[in-house]
Automatic annotation (TrEMBL):
It comes from Physeter macrocephalus (Sperm whale). Keywords: Calcium, Cell adhesion, Glycoprotein, Membrane, Repeat, Signal, Transmembrane, Transmembrane helix. It comes from the Eukaryota. This is Protocadherin beta-4. InterPro entries: Cadherin-like_dom, Cadherin-like_sf, Cadherin_C, Cadherin_CS, Cadherin_N, Protocadherin/Cadherin-CA. The keyword Cytoplasm does not apply. GO terms for molecular function: calcium ion binding. The chain crosses the membrane at residues 688-711. It is a single-pass membrane protein.
Length: 791
């Protein structure tokens, strides 16, 4: 607190020093003159030329004219630069008897602040005639009055001054008196009546003369009063004041009816001629209204409030009259002592209520202070609070300029309440406070700011189009249009992402919408940028990153990869009857297009030809035997395996397995039940054809063998070796006969034939067939049997 007070005192001292310096350094004022009573809107001067300014500069810099008396008597045409009269000027009303009558005014311009001081001399015209206070004056003169005696008369008042004011007095021609004009130290002219010869009451007891007051105008004006002179019997002595002039000081704040002083006059005559009465002599209306005198005691009292700022002293003429009509004159000089009874006055002719932020030194207000007191009572100090970004600069005389100390920031403080305090140096000190409200207008200096630098939104797949998926929000610290934010989508980061068909944004509130249904399996996440721009000039903008995560929905059922279900023939799994418990029959392989728990698959045996014989592992889909196989167990089994995901609700798929129990892997392949059912229809017709074909082939074969044997017997002359088999030359290419697997045979067989040459009957022996390779479950098993000779 002490620091703030010290700063404020330093500011006040600096302000006072600058004010004194500037008051001594300002240039000489420009001077003009005008006759009083000149019509309003009359031309006085061309300020643009006299001030050395450019054309239009007065308008551009908001020039103003201010008069010292706070009355707008002058008018400035900013466009033409002419200084005009706003109204008729009455010199007597403005200046009274003061001469010369000068109206002080100031011309100040803004941006930058500049002051010019001016003076307008109001010239008097003869528009007032002299006026006596009374239309008739009574003067009593003793008959023993000697020639040359001077009798003061009441003066006339002329409001004009100079040569137009009262110049002389005259009296109507007579042989006993003439009038002389006496100049007073205050500049007033008094009439004195001078006696020219002795008086004789018995000859002429009364005179009626006309007293005339003339001014010096052209033509001159005049005023008259009837002077009635009464010749009285002898009264030897006139009253005389003990002191003259009386001098007294009176405080201007003295209450009404307070005594000023008491005057005293003595008359050495006795009786009625020695009785003295007091009165004001040649008193103006102002004096008559301000003071009164007791006729008996001579006490002067205050009858009107005094004002040092208007009248600083009074010169009061007093008169003491005895009972015989003789009078003595005196004077009282009353000086009004100034007291600090006027608080400082503050006038603001120029005020800027709104200042743009970030502006350099800016003039907020130009104001003038004045204290009507004098001395220390009229000396003032001007200050503002020290914690504000404003300073006071003294300019011309008692003018001050309130300017910004540094650029203002509306976002920090949007409004300032400035209290201007003006304090005088009197005792007690009086002060005046004036509050100014300054608004800081917004400038678009803040870009919109998003509440987050990045946003992560989540939307479940298979959403409905135009679904609201989230919002972004940006704030702007500016105001008005500078704070109105518009949202938009910026070009996508990935040009392959069709952003325009995926999302849209509400430009007013930043709400984001999905334009179409999203598919998690096709697009799991995507990113894009959103922009926020204000409506300032120029517009400012910012951007944020938005990442959209598509949440998986359980919209895909499990798909079985193995065994395939769309094959033309169902898959059959062969299981040897000697398989142990837990024997791996096959494995069901399935996938799910979803993710997470929606893709977690579990397997279970839904149906089985013989429950309890096979089992399915729940987590990997392996089909295994649950126990040892027995002879009583059926050879063919049909299993239905259910594959189910873990979604909500769960989706599932099923697969059918055919299992064939075999004794080892030597048995021919048996068709699955589905295959038998499919071939049952053409079986009857096909059997007929197979039987016919087999009979034909067999017959042809036997015939060929017989022919072959006969030919060999005929060509060989001797007996062949006993027990030796040979292949005869002939049409047969080799020693093997091939029988195709037609008819009911499920596979091809090859037979080796050999003849015995020592048998006349031509017997031939058959060997057991040589089995080909058998393909079972993608595993080649070569089955070979050694040939045994059969009869």
């Amino acid at each position: 607190m002490e620091t703030l007070e010290r700063i404020q005192q330093n500011r006040q001292v600096m302000t006072f020093i600058l004010m004194v310096f500037l008051s001594q350094a300002h240039p000489a004022p420009i001077r003009y003159s005008v006759l009083e009573e000149t019509e309003s809107v009359s031309f006085i001067a061309h300020l643009t030329k006299d001030l050395g300014l450019g054309i239009g500069e007065l308008a551009a810099r908001s020039a103003q004219v201010v008069c010292d008396d706070d009355k707008q008597r002058l008018l400035l045409d900013r466009q033409t630069g002419d200084l005009l009269l706003r109204e008729k000027l009455d010199r007597e009303d403005i200046c009274g008897p003061a001469e010369p009558c000068v109206l002080h005014f100031q011309v100040f311009l803004e941006t930058p602040v500049q002051f010019f001081e001016g003076e307008l001399l109001i010239q008097d015209i003869n528009d007032h005639s002299p006026v006596f206070p009374n239309r008739e004056m009574l003067l009593k003169i003793p008959e023993n009055s000697q020639p040359g005696t001077v009798f003061p008369l009441k003066l006339a008042q002329d409001l004009d001054v100079g040569s137009n004011g009262l110049q002389k007095y005259t009296i109507s021609p007579n042989s006993h008196f003439h009038v002389v004009t006496r100049n007073h130290s205050e500049g007033k002219k008094y009439p004195d009546l001078v006696q020219d010869k002795a008086l004789d009451r018995e000859e002429q007891p009364e005179f009626s003369l006309t007293l005339m007051a003339l001014d010096g105008g052209s033509p001159p004006r005049s005023g008259t009063s009837m002077l009635r002179i009464l010749i009285m019997d002898v009264n030897d002595n006139a009253p005389e004041f003990v002191h003259t002039p009386y001098e007294v000081q009176v405080l201007e704040n003295s209450p009404l009816d307070s005594p000023i002083l008491t005057v005293l006059a003595r008359d050495v005559d006795a009786g009625n001629f020695g009785t003295v009465s007091y009165g004001l002599f040649q008193a103006s209306e102002e004096i008559k209204q301000t003071f009164s005198i007791n006729e008996v005691t001579g006490e002067i009292r205050l009858t009107k409030k005094l004002d040092f700022e208007q009248i600083k002293s009074y010169h009061v003429e007093i008169e003491a009259t005895d009972g015989g009509g003789l009078s003595g004159k005196g004077s009282v000089v009353i000086e009004v002592v100034d007291v600090n009874d006027n608080a400082p006055e503050l006038t603001i002719p120029s005020l800027t209520c709104s200042i743009p932020e970030n502006a350099p030194e800016t003039v907020v207000s130009i104001f003038r202070i004045r204290d009507r007191d004098s001395g220390d009572n009229g000396r003032t100090v001007c200050s503002i609070p020290g914690n504000l970004p404003f300073i006071l600069k003294p300019t011309l005389k008692n003018f001050y300029t309130l300017v910004t100390e540094r650029p203002l920031d509306r976002e920090s403080t949007a409004e300032y309440n400035i209290t201007i305090t003006v304090t005088d140096m009197g005792t007690p000190r009086l002060k005046t406070e004036h509050n100014i409200t300054v608004l800081v207008s917004d400038v678009n200096d803040n870009a919109p700011a998003f509440t987050q630098t990045s946003y992560t939104l989540s939307v479940r797949e298979n959403n409905s189009p135009a679904l609201h998926i989230g919002s972004v929000r940006a704030t702007d610290r500016d105001a008005g249009a500078n704070a109105q934010v518009t949202y938009s989508l910026l070009p996508p980061l990935d040009p392959h992402v069709p952003l325009a068909s995926l999302v849209s944004i509400n430009p007013d509130n930043g709400h984001l919408f999905a334009l179409r249904s999203l598919d998690y399996e096709a697009l799991r996440a995507f990113e894009f940028r959103v922009g926020a721009a204000d409506r300032g000039s120029p517009a400012l903008s910012s951007q944020a990153l938005v990442r959209v995560l598509v949440a998986d929905d359980n919209d895909n059922a499990p798909f079985v990869l193995y065994p395939l279900q769309n094959a033309s023939a169902p898959c059959t799994e062969l299981v040897p009857r000697a398989a142990e418990a837990g024997y791996l029959v096959t494995k069901v392989v399935a996938v799910d297009g979803d993710s997470g728990q929606n893709a977690w698959l579990s397997y279970q045996l839904l149906k089985a030809t013989e429950p309890g014989l096979f089992g399915v592992w729940a987590h990997n889909g392996e089909v295994r035997t649950a126990r040892l196989l027995g002879e009583r167990d059926a050879a063919k089994h049909r299993l239905v395996v259910l594959v189910k995901d873990n979604g909500e609700p769960p989706l599932s798929a099923s697969v059918t397995l055919h299992v064939l129990l075999v004794d080892g892997f030597s048995q021919p392949y048996l068709p699955a039940p589905e295959a038998e059912a499919a071939g049952a229809a053409p079986a009857a017709a096909l059997t007929v054809y197979l039987v016919v074909a087999l009979a034909s082939v067999s017959s042809l074969f036997l015939f060929s063998v017989l022919v072959f044997v006969a030919v060999r017997l005929c060509r060989r002359g001797g007996a062949a070796s006993v027990g030796r088999c040979s292949v005869p030359e002939g049409p047969f290419p080799g020693h093997l006969l091939d029988v195709s697997g037609t008819g009911t045979l499920s596979q091809s067989y090859q037979y080796e034939v050999c003849l015995t040459g020592d048998h006349e009957t031509g017997e031939f022996k058959f060997l057991k067939p040589v089995f080909p390779k058998l393909l079972v479950q993608n595993t080649e098993i070569e089955i070979k049997r050694k040939p045994q000779l059969q009869e």
